[in-house]
Each structure stands twice: as C-alpha cells, then as structure tokens.
Amino acid sequence: MGNHHKIDYVELPSTNFDAMKAFYGQVFGWTFEDYGGHYVSFIGAGLEGGFLPVENTPPRGGAMVILYSDDLAASELAVINAGSQVLERHDFPGGSRFQFLDPSGNELAIWTKD
C-alpha cells in the first residue's frame, strides 16, 4: 500500500516568511530551508511542508492543520508568548484542544488526549 493516497505534504499560505519562521521555530522548534526567497520548506513538523507566498491573509474556515501536544497548557503558553491569538478552547470526549492564528492568519489547532 505504501504512501498511495496518504497526505504527503502540506503548504501553509504565508504573507511574511520571516514572521512565519520566527513563530513556528519559537513555538514548535521547526527548522527551515529557503528557496531563493520564493518558497520556504519546514522540517520537524512530523509531515513535510512549506510556506507558500500569498499577498492576502487566507480566509478562515477551510481545511485545518491540527498538531498534537503532550502538554497542551505548555503549548498554549508558547503560542501566546510567540504573539499568537488563541481563538477558542474546548474539551471533547477523549481530549481537549485550542485553535489559534499564525502570523499570516492561518487557523490551526493543537490537541491532547485526556
């Protein structure tokens, strides 16, 4: 079966590469590779991906990237300390999560098991 029809790569729209690298590096420890100022790939996210340059903040309400945390409170504090806005927090059967905006306006979430 291999990787056939598995999610292989994710791109996050970016209005500012420097702000995105600073945020994701500070909060999650990701590292980056620049491609001539026109694209940035990220390493260490558990799935390969990159930042796709865009001029405008992406609309909310589309597909959402959800990260896992062993310590949700520490992850939330790191997100806030990096300047992000937490949008909502909620519990659900088996876990808890919060959603936040990154520097380019992408909405993501972080969750943990109870």
Account of the 3D structure:
By secondary structure, the protein is an alpha/beta fold. It has a single domain, classed as 2,3-Dihydroxybiphenyl 1,2-Dioxygenase, domain 1. Helices cover 19% and strands 39% of the residues. The protein has two helices and eight strands, in the order E-H-E-E-E-E-H-E-E-E. It has helices at residues 17-28, 72-81, and strands at residues 10-14, 31-34, 40-43, 49-53, 65-68, 85-92, 95-101, 107-113. The strands form two sheets. It has a four-stranded mixed sheet, with helices on one face. Strands 5-8-7-6 form a four-stranded mixed sheet, with helices on one face. A hairpin with a 2-residue loop joins strand 6 and strand 7 (95-101). The longest helix has 12 residues, at 17-28. The model has no long low-confidence stretch (mean pLDDT 96).
Summarize the topology.
Blueprint lengths: L9 E5 L2 H12 L2 E4 L5 E4 L5 E5 L11 E4 L3 H10 L3 E8 L2 E7 L5 E7 L1
Parallel strand pairs: 1-4, 5-8
Antiparallel strand pairs: 2-3, 3-4, 6-7, 7-8
Helix pairs in contact: 1-2
The mean pLDDT is 96
- Morphology call: globular
CATH homology superfamily name: 2,3-Dihydroxybiphenyl 1,2-Dioxygenase, domain 1
How far from one another are the termini?
Answer: 32 Å
How many discrete structural domains? 1
CATH fold group: 2,3-Dihydroxybiphenyl 1,2-Dioxygenase, domain 1
The assigned structural class equals: alpha/beta
Strand content: 35-45%
According to DSSP, the number of beta strands is 8
Give the count of helical stretches. Answer: 2
Low-confidence parts, pLDDT < 50 over ≥5 residues?
A: none
CATH class: Alpha Beta
Q: What would you say the CATH architecture is?
A: Roll
Radius of gyration: 14 Å
Spatial order of the strands in the main sheet?
1-4-3-2
Q: Describe the sheet with the most strands.
A: 4 strands, mixed
Q: What is the H/E string?
A: EHEEEEHEEE
| Fraction of residues in H or I helices | 10-25%
